[in-house]
Amino acid sequence: MPQCNVKPAEGKLGIMVVGNGAVATTFMTGVLMTRKGLAKPIGSMTQYDKMRIGKGADKKYLHYKDIVPLADLNDIVFGCWDVYPQNAYQSAMYAEVLKEKDIEPVRDELEKIVPMKAAFDKNYAKRLDGDNVKTNDKGQMPTRWEMVEALKQDIHDFKAKNQCARIVVLWAASTEIYVPVDEQVHYTLEALEKAMKDDDREHIAPSMCYAYAALTEGAPFIMGAPNTTVDIPAMWELAEKTKMPIAGKDFKTGQTLVKSGFSPIIGTRCLGLSGWFSTNILGNRDGLVLDEPANFRTKEVSKLSTLETILKPDVQPDLYGHGNDEDTQYYHKVRINYYPPRNDNKEGWDNIDIFGWMGYPMQIKINFLCRDSILAAPLCLDLCLLSDLAARAGRYGTQRFLSFFLKSPMHDYTKGEEAVNHLYQQYTMLKNAIREMGGYEADEEID
Ligand SMILES: NC(=O)c1ccc[n+]([C@@H]2O[C@H](COP(=O)([O-])OP(=O)(O)OC[C@H]3O[C@@H](n4cnc5c(N)ncnc54)[C@H](O)[C@@H]3O)[C@@H](O)[C@H]2O)c1
pLDDT at residue 303 above 80? Predict the structure, then answer.
């Protein structure tokens, strides 16, 4: 038997979710229902996928939990923060993602998940007006450093009260306004800490306070929105210093999942692309926040990044080098339209203009009638369990093997590293990390 160098998953795992909205409550309800044998965690790789270990006559296909020690669903304890005070039962009912019959059996447990006060700055999400927010002694918004200290206390108290052995912090809160990376503030930990202490509200998003608090309390941090929070060198430095894993950003759920799985068809067959237009209609609170241009900008940057590393104009100028923005590559446009009647049932349309032999044009249309939170919930579970696994395996810093679950995967852009967006390359990275943690050899075979 190979030597598995991962510490066992003993004791309770506290999953502290920032945000108690549609995604968070669908995730929590699904885990609690699964635990009771009343639902199945469909879409979760850690619960369903079987992967090969070994080769030739020795090969076997095993579930992840039979290769590496994963936390058991029964050992999970949930906590959360939100701007609104409603407990997870009320919030799940409000979100209307799940039917009442799929929530009621775990009502008691959900009612006990009461959000702690949020570290919030309205300038980062103008459309939200909840009052369950942290204030300082003077009743005002705390400074960024006071936010960090209060969040550290929350994590510490939650861990002690629930007797958790380990904590993971997951951001499933609203998309904040776009914070461009600033070399003066975001490139070193020293500068970041100084900006927090100076209460630099322009460069320090509240989400950075959550990430800082999590890492310094010994908890991995996962960014499920497109916020640049941990996608800055200062946070990479903090993750190295605290020896904690970080992952992000933006759950890869509907349209981008399709894009990163479908675009390799075009690239692999050497077909040309002149344009890809993606639009969505969405009516939940996420859609409301994204209706604000400054918040949409964060999402747009994340959604646009997917194709660039799969269909590369510089590598194949004949195929991908014209049609658009300054005639240097295909035209890629993404839109999100807030449309309340659809609530969480997002409709994503893709119009893809391709061309073939001698440049003759063709079109592909994809219409995905999806359910946003139903697609995001299994990703929340997998990202939490695998980040906890990574921490026990002694891995720290950006966990590139988790790119499979993320729309805009983190990579070291200061060294010219590229993100891996191709779904099947990401899957290979995921499997190889699990093989290695389980003491098996990594390989590139396709199955
Ligand atoms: N569902 C998907 O398919 C999908 C895919 C990718 C990313 N996301 C992202 O996941 C996030 C959650 O989506 P959702 O549909 O659950 O949204 P939602 O609006 O239902 O829930 C988000 C919650 O976060 C809370 N919040 C905002 N700022 C906060 C702060 N500073 N601290 C604590 N709580 C805060 C809000 O009050 C709200 O209740 C969004 O950022 C969304 O863009 C979702």
Answer: no
Contact 152, 121 (CB under 8 A): no
**5 compared with 389, residue with greater pLDDT:** 389
Enumerate residues lining ligand 1, CB below 6 A: 18-24, 81-84, 95, 118-120, 125, 128, 130, 172-175, 206, 224-225, 250-251, 253-254, 284-286, 372-373, 375-376
Q: Is 421 helix (H, G, I), strand (E, B) or coil?
A: coil
Q: Whose CA is nearest to atom 2 of ligand 1?
A: 372
What total of structural domains would you count in the chain? 2
Distance of CA 97 from the midpoint of ligand 1 (Å)? 14
Closest CA relative to residue 62, chosen from 137, 122, 2: 2
At 323 the pLDDT is 58
Please report, for the domain that includes residue 265, its CATH number: 3.30.360.10
The rounded Å distance from CA 284 to ligand 1 centre is: 10
**In this model, does residue 83 exceed pLDDT 70?**
yes
Of the candidates 291, 255, 261, 267, the residue with the CA atom closest to the CA atom of residue 371: 255
Let me know whether 50 and 173 are in one domain.
yes
Residues 229, 182 share a domain: yes
**Residue 54 CA to ligand 1 centre (angstroms):** 40
Bridge partners, 352 (sequence order): 276, 364
pLDDT given at position 89: 98
> Which CATH number belongs to the domain containing residue 171 in this structure?
3.40.50.720
Using the 3D structure, point to which of 316, 340, 369 is the last residue of a domain.
369
Q: What is the pLDDT of residues 99-137, one digit of tens each?
A: 999 999 999 999 999 999 999 999 999 888 889 999 998
Helical segments of 56-98, H only: 88-95
Question: How far is the centre of ligand 1, averaged over its atoms, from the C-alpha of 430 (Å)?
Answer: 26
Give the residue, by CA position, lying nearest to ligand 1 atom 8: 225
Distance 170 CA to ligand 1 centre (A): 11
Please list the residues that pair with 376 across neighbouring strands: none
Co-location of 400 and 334 in the same domain: no
Query: Does 340 lie in the same domain as 315?
Result: yes
Q: Which residues pair with 251 in a beta bridge?
A: 406
User: Which of 369, 400, 415 represents a domain boundary (last residue)?
Assistant: 369
Q: What is the pLDDT of residue 342?
A: 86
